[in-house]
Amino acid sequence: MGVLIASLCRKPGRSAVLAALDESTTWDTHEHLLARISDGIELSNFLFIQANSSEDTGLEPPTPLPRPGQPEQQPEPFEFATGSDVASFFTQMNHL
Asked: Which positions ≥6 away from 63 have C-beta within 8 Å?
């Protein structure tokens, strides 16, 4: 029986058996790629707005689309550099 299940898991495409055994197989490669593209676009829009807005916008970073079979991920907190940090970075790069 184990050989049958192992061979079914290696077959391409979708099936009810695979979906019942592994929830992550309910999405095809195309759907995973589209979710990744969507997450990238949302993050890029967020960073563009943050870079071109005042520091007190209060926007939260976007949450990634939930993928089947994966636990929900919380975005890692990050801080933006201040103007003096950016200026000192470029000063250091200029003196290399």
From this structure: 74, 75
